[in-house]
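call fold target=Iron-containing alcohol dehydrogenase
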Amino acid sequence: MSQSYYEFFCPVKVIAGKAALEHIPYELSGVAATRTLLITDKGVRAAGLLEPVLEACEEGGQDIVSIYDDVPPDSSTHVVKAIADIYREEKCDSIIAVGGGSSIDTAKAVNILVSEGGDDLAAYAGAGVLKRPLKPFLVVPTTAGTGSEVTAVAVIADTEKSVKLPFTSSFLLPDAAIIDPRMTLTLPPHITAATAMDAMTHATEAFTCMAKNPLSDAYATAAVKKISGNLLTVMENPKDGDARLELAQASTMAGIAFSNSMVGLVHSLGHATGAICHLPHGLCMSVYLPYVLEYNLETIREPLSELLIYMAGPDVYATTPAARRAEACISEIRKLRDELYKRAKLPRTLQETGQVTEDQLERIARLALDDGSIMFNPREVTLDDAMAVLKRAWG
């Protein structure tokens, strides 16, 4: 599975640690930004997470001239246009996104409109449409899962046409990602669990899919080690700032890994399930991960065996017979999911979600086959194959 040719790209400046937020004014002044629009959602504001960001900006003499705090979980072109209008009215010159994947994707899309002009977001959908840098843009993630702060993609719903518009361009990457443990300290247990499993899936698929390369492997394995070593610590003690920071860094590392090596069938099934059943993305990732690894097993036995070192530690790796290491790695993932079910009721099967019916499985399978990430799955997938995985994941 080694690549004779590959490309690796991550120009995002990462500012991480216990006083990372205090560096925001310096980053903004470095790009001559003086009028910033902050984009977030109601949950982030209600959790009090804006205060430290606003305090850091105020102390550093940076103006946040407007705050938009109404980004929905599934953002749409209407929301993006409304925020772009505010940006123009307030004569803003920069954007900060504070939140999870939806707020970050929304901010990326707003940046397209305010930089390129016009109101027709769909005109910029697809890959490589953007040809020049956008406005200054910083991201402060509040979940340790999506990795959106270091990915060159955004997805926005066009509700009138009932489609999701994908945007891919290196110009969508933020100028800086601010990783501060204060931002994830108040995450509820089930969201902590689901987002961490999202990052675990990013890393695992990045390490086992078709476009893996030595640089993405380094980020992917480091992310797996940090998640498996810190997730249960955070579930036991949610206020553990050090372990929270480790999870946040793991999410960023996994984001760098998969944006350079792509993902596979777990994401294809997850995207389809999200679209049809409206299940959160991280939850879908957690449900499907072991079943897809079992489906891909004979094609990925070598990298999956190696991943056991990072998933369970060198002692377990050394005492597991070489021929059983790949299976042992899947078993470690199942054990972790069982613990998360015990502590936060994170579902392990589609049935346990209570939001998927058996008659939806074929629709999910058909939609998954049309998903772009399936191209990078290490084993080819037919409709029957997808159905077999879904039936196993059903419970």
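return ok
The radius of gyration is 20 Å. The beta strands are 13-16, 35-39, 63-68, 94-99, 126-127, 137-141, 153-158, 163-168, 176-179.
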